[in-house]
Design goal:
Layout lengths: L7 H32 L10 H32 L6 H24 L7 H6 L11 H24 L4 H17 L9 H36 L3 H22 L12 H12 L1 H18 L15 H24 L3 H7 L4 H29 L2 E3 L4 H35 L4 H8 L2 H30 L7 E2 L1
Antiparallel strand pairs: 1-2
Helix pairs in contact: 1-2, 1-3, 1-13, 1-16, 2-3, 2-5, 2-7, 2-13, 3-5, 5-6, 6-7, 7-8, 7-11, 7-13, 8-9, 8-10, 10-11, 11-13, 11-14, 13-14, 14-15, 14-16
The structure holds protoporphyrin IX containing FE (HEM) (2 copies) and fe (ii) ion (FE2).
Amino acid sequence: MLGNLQYESKKLAIMYFTVAAILFGAQLLFGLIIATQYLYPSFLFEILDFSTARMVHINALVVWLLYAMIGSVYWILPDETGIETVGIKLGKLGFYVLTAAVTVVVLVYILVQTGSGSKLTTWLIIEGREYIEAPRWADIGIVVVVLIFLFNVFATAIKGKMTGIIQVLMADLLALAGLYLAGMFYTANISIDQYWWWWVIHLWVEATWEVFVACLAGYALIKILDAKREIIEMWLWIEVAMLFGSGILGLGHHYFWIGTPEYWWEIGALFSALEPVPLVAMFVHVIYDWGKESGIAKGKDKIHILKNSPAFAWLIVGAFGNFLGAGVWGFMHTLPQINLYTHGTQWPAAHGHLAFYGAYATILIGMMYMGVQGKNRIKQMKMTRSSKLAISLITIGVLGMTVALTASAYVQTMVERAQWGATWEGYFVAQNSVWFLQGVGWRLFMGLVTFVGFVFLIKDLLTIKSDKRQVYT
Ligand code: HEM
Ligand code: HEM
Ligand SMILES: [Fe+2]
């Protein structure tokens, strides 16, 4: 039995998943707007600024992923600990406070797009740190809500059963929440400000979030495949050690050109080059479990039935996507000798799309399917036509955008940087190159493909329960 809504914690999880899905849609719509503005700069001129729409695009991304992560934890908590989440009423209050705050922040971004800045601006309108631009009042609200969440998790784990997955998650959550504080204080020096800001962004996506989703994937593999818990938890600890071993000093790849001491070139080069190693390990791990537990490796004697095929499919795309987007596309530009030429081009954007999608969006969508399965008490959940269309169109769309942007980035690197020596004139020569423009054109097209896939995803999440293929108890 995969659990049902007898636990309040699971109801709260579904609420978090719902808002996450809505924000995902908003993220894509704003992505389409800025991709259009790349090609037609007068599109929505003086109505919706590129800088504002871009900000909503990437902040919505971070926020929906966090919503889906919190939702996933509320979902797995009763299963892992065996009890109802402690302080669940407080947890629900936190959800409403957070959602109200997010709504107000986004409305303010859109209504107050330009204007003069003062100290009050940081408190009321925007803090100005890419990805985590929320104003100071919202920052403080977020900290309070996260403290409630931490209390829920820790109190429940201490009262109930404490599995290895929950232990890793508890340690990881402390680090994840603590790091947010590094992006909250004000310094007048832009280098110092960037230095600390990267602690949030890099140490989130390349260390703490990776461990977080590894815990979720571990849980899902146990539920879907009956994978052996001891093996999953052993791998988790190894992955935690490797991720932190390379990810923490891998931070150096953001310190190459921001005014920090030059020793970061060597440190950043070495440790960030090691970062793909744990990603390969995680990839091998999932594929290994897939083969071993589904009986492929052993011959036909022990074929397990997949209890949730859509979720499993998303996990597999996650294993490939994390490896390709973060590992391969990250490695491409991580050495300072190369980054000197790729920095500030579409290269990081190509990598950013595939990495965020591959590593996080995929696994969290998989968790949403786990939620839908549990909510509707489906014993064995099969793929529908919409499940297949959603996963293929979204994946082809994001991969397509990545390849298109890589082509555009290649032109910028070669023409603007290598040939023209990073001059002002070189910038425009590259921007007007037909190859660059074709790349951004294809990005828009592939973005549309992604969006169509998203529509199928929502349709599927809402209607999969009534599909005839599903097996009920
Ligand atoms: C899932 C994990 C990862 C995610 C979500 C991610 C995402 C991103 C994003 C969004 C950026 C652009 C940041 C900006 O706005 O300036 C970026 C930059 C970068 N990433 Fe990653 N990344 C991940 C893992 C990695 C790994 C494993 C490596 C190295 C092997 C890597 C290497 C880089 C480098 C070198 C840059 C800086 C590019 C520049 O500013 O010139 N990333 N990453
Ligand atoms: C409809 C699909 C999408 C379109 C059309 C789109 C378009 C764009 C555009 C035009 C930018 C601005 C690039 C720049 O400033 O030069 C951007 C940035 C970004 N997008 Fe998307 N996007 C889409 C979906 C996604 C998805 C699914 C993700 C992740 C899961 C994502 C993550 C990002 C990130 C991390 C950045 C910042 C990159 C950086 O700073 O280097 N986008 N997107
Ligand atoms: Fe990084």
